């Protein structure tokens, strides 16, 4: 039964990711229609603050309404938000709805973690997490190509309308298979007590720090790479879609085999060290590309994601070997790595853009990523 439910969760991960990934790389360009590019990061910061508050309250909410009702509410709200973004042009409505839409995804990841953790075993964590992430990341691979075709005439509404359709099968499957989901006992620990609890579990704290750095990487790349390629390099959306599709292939190609290797042979530490170096060095190199040649950008961005996808699956595998479904406070705090990063990341990126030429944002980001070695080199391996 657990194996069947895991298969359903993988499919849920795909549809859940589609409602985020389809507009994921054009969100910043879409919002440029309503506000200056340097101010877009503020929206991500606000949504991250809201997500932090919600994740802090998550165990309390889960105890009251349960995981099933919580995720059903979140995804229904996402559906409505996407339709509003597709068909409304009022800036006073678009901005708050955009913030709500960004916030929902961060919280819903926690709910999916609880579903998956309930049907997982520690001996297969790397493999299970690898399959789940690969299925979800399939959405991120196909989405840029689809969006490139949809945006030939700059019709952003088509993108958000299509994303809303992905919510329908998600809710249908969730209602059919998880309506009677039996919730574990959720521990409601205050924020600072949870943080102190996390600090006492040193290895989990280190993997949390690595995960936060990875999300920091995404916070810059997702917001500013599309703007840079479209506005400064001069690429059209169809070309950018092809580049991003190639760029994201490592998330499908590597995460399952790396998850199995972490379970059976190496553990996570060695792979983490190599992956952080790859991610940092290739990201720095992006600042020095002085051409609009597609294969050059596609190749280098592909290598950055070789590093990022490896860090992603290793951090997931390591963390979920150390916790179980009853550790909702720790899991919730782990998922706070995303809003933490999206608060600090856009703010620091805005400062960087103000101080240096736009292209050097990648150089600064790569240097920041190297600090992850401080944690990965000292973590206790699982094998």
Search tags:
383 residues; mainly alpha; single chain
Short description:
The chain is mostly helical and 383 residues long. It contains 18 helices and no strands.
What can you tell me about this protein's structure?
- Helix 5 runs antiparallel to helix 10, helix 5 (125-150) packs antiparallel against helix 12 (255-264) and helix 13 (269-285) packs antiparallel against helix 14 (294-322).
- This protein has 18 helices and no strands.
- It is globular and about 50 Å long.
- It is mainly alpha-helical and 383 residues long.
Number of helices: 18
Strand content: under 5%
What's the overall average pLDDT, rounded? Answer: 86
Low-pLDDT stretches: none
Number of strands: 0
Question: How can the largest sheet be summarized?
Answer: none
Give the topology string: H per helix, E per strand.
HHHHHHHHHHHHHHHHHH
Envelope shape: globular
Which percent range fits the helix content?
over 70%
What is the radius of gyration? Answer: 20 Å
Distance between the termini: 29 Å
Structural class: mainly alpha
Question: How do the strands and helices of this protein lay out in sequence?
Answer:
Blueprint (H helix, E strand, L loop, with lengths): L1 H23 L2 H5 L5 H51 L3 H28 L6 H26 L5 H10 L1 H12 L12 H10 L1 H32 L3 H11 L2 H4 L1 H10 L4 H17 L8 H29 L5 H8 L1 H19 L5 H10 L2 H4 L7
Helix pairs in contact: 1-4, 1-5, 1-6, 1-7, 3-4, 3-6, 3-7, 3-15, 3-16, 4-15, 5-10, 5-12, 5-14, 9-14, 9-16, 9-17, 10-14, 12-14, 13-14, 13-17
């Amino acid at each position: 039964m657990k194996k069947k439910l895991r298969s359903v969760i993988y499919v849920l991960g795909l549809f859940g990711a589609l409602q985020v990934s389809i507009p994921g790389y054009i969100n910043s360009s879409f919002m440029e229609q309503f506000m200056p590019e340097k101010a877009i990061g503020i929206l991500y910061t606000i949504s991250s603050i809201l997500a932090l508050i919600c994740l802090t309250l998550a165990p309390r909410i889960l105890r009251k309404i349960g995981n099933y009702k919580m995720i059903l509410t979140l995804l229904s709200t996402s559906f409505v938000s996407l339709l509003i973004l597709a068909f409304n042009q009022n800036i006073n409505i678009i901005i708050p709805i955009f913030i709500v839409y960004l916030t929902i995804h961060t919280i819903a990841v926690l709910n999916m973690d609880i579903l998956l953790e309930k049907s997982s075993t520690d001996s297969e964590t790397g493999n299970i997490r690898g399959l789940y992430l690969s299925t979800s990341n399939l959405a991120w691979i196909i989405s840029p190509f689809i969006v490139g075709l949809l945006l030939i005439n700059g019709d952003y509404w088509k993108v958000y309308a299509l994303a809303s359709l992905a919510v329908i099968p998600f809710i249908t499957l969730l209602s059919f298979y998880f309506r009677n989901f039996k919730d574990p006992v959720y521990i409601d620990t205050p924020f600072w007590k949870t943080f102190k609890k996390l600090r006492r579990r040193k290895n989990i704290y280190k993997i949390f720090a690595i995960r936060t750095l990875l999300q920091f990487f995404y916070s810059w790349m997702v917001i500013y790479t599309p703007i840079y390629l479209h506005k400064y390099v001069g690429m059209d959306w169809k070309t950018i879609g092809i580049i991003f599709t190639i760029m994201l292939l490592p998330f499908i190609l590597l995460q399952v085999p790396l998850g199995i290797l972490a379970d059976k042979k190496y553990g996570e530490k060695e792979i983490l060290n190599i992956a952080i170096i790859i991610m940092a060095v290739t990201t720095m190199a992006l600042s020095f590309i002085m051409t609009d040649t597609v294969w050059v950008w596609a190749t280098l961005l592909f290598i950055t994601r070789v590093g990022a996808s490896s860090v992603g699956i290793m951090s997931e595998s390591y963390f979920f070997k150390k916790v179980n479904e009853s550790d909702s406070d720790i899991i919730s705090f782990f998922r706070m790595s995303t809003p933490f990063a999206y608060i600090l990341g856009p703010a620091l990126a805005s400062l960087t853009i103000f101080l240096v030429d736009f292209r050097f944002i990648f150089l600064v980001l790569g240097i920041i990523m190297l600090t992850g070695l401080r944690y990965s080199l000292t973590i206790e391996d699982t094998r």
